[in-house]
Specification:
Number of strands: 6
Radius of gyration: 14 Å
Structural class: alpha+beta
Order of helices and strands: HEEHEHEEEH
Distance between the termini: 24 Å
Number of helices: 4
Number of domains: 1
Low-confidence stretches: none
Helix content: 25-40%
Length: 139
């Protein structure tokens, strides 16, 4: 599992650094995630970066066969509406890293929420992971 944590850390640090001028991160208590917004003209570039690590993309048309952990995350966010995406790391790992991609109704802005999730690690390990995750996003 520590190799996977190292992969999550590497992705988060690279992603934050790559978009430090475009994405300003804050903590979203409601969903327990790092939150930033971007303009839709940056969407292709940012989505391409997300896909380097979060290779699986879920939308409202392809979740019927999603693993339980993915269903849990989708339900945590109240489902996936038209245009919303959920980028995930390999869902068979003990820890899932995800990015919820939510376009706004204005057609110009997108909310990006990134967080790790696991039902398989101890509460102590979850607390440590959450602490590290917040550090990687400078939260």
């Amino acid at each position: 599992m520590s190799d996977f944590i190292t992969g999550i850390e590497k992705f988060c640090l690279e992603f934050v650094k790559e978009y430090r001028d475009e994405l300003k991160w804050e903590w979203d208590d409601r969903f327990g995630a790092a939150l930033a917004t971007c303009k839709t003209e940056k969407k292709d570039v940012i989505q391409s970066s997300l896909q380097r690590f979060l290779k699986t993309i879920w939308d409202n048309s392809n979740t019927d066969d999603a693993p339980d952990i993915v269903f849990y995350v989708i339900n945590h966010f109240g489902g996936l509406m038209q245009g919303q995406l959920l980028f995930t790391s390999d869902p068979i790992q003990d820890i899932l890293l995800f990015c919820a991609w939510w376009p706004w109704g204005d057609g110009e802005t997108v909310s990006i929420r990134v967080a790790p999730f696991s039902k398989k690690i101890s509460d102590e390990d979850k607390a440590e992971l959450s602490k590290k995750f917040k550090e990687w996003f400078s939260l």
